[in-house]
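Before surveying the methods themselves, let us examine one representative protein, written as a sequence plus integers encoding its fold.
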Amino acid sequence: MAHSIKTASMIRGSLLTALVSALLVVCGLMATTASSASAASYNGACESGEFCMGLYYNLSGGLYDNSGSDPDNNLHNDHFVRNWAQLVGNNTWSIQNRGSTHEILVYDGAGRTGAVACLKRSRGLLNLDGSWWKDRISSYKWVSSCPPGVGVWG
């Protein structure tokens, strides 16, 4: 019967391989956690860099928060955080642009169609009571500046 004899260098090599593997796993977990923390869209908190919409006034009753444009350009497919029963499209009473570099174009039609208005960057909370836009926002997109001829909040 053959016996395996491990030399000190073989043991050090195995330990080094295990240590490097463990380090790669830890670094991967840290990178995943860091990217999740910086991209906190849809977490129910209106944070810096996000466009936020509230089901009711003062961003209450449910919140939609996103740091980019809606991927499918249709808020009728999206739900409010903390109120999943309600769709975002045509159910918004308050909005806020917490972005520091872009304006937001809002549209009353899905697919960025219909009437359009622009919400300036870093615009404080805007309640849409008495506004034609209350319960009409169906899509939006981030833009570098408000186009000429578009109504502006801000």
Residues 15-39 have pLDDT under 50 and may be disordered. The first strand starts at residue 51 and ends at 54. Residues 8-38 form the longest helix (31 residues). The chain has two domains: 1-38, 51-153.
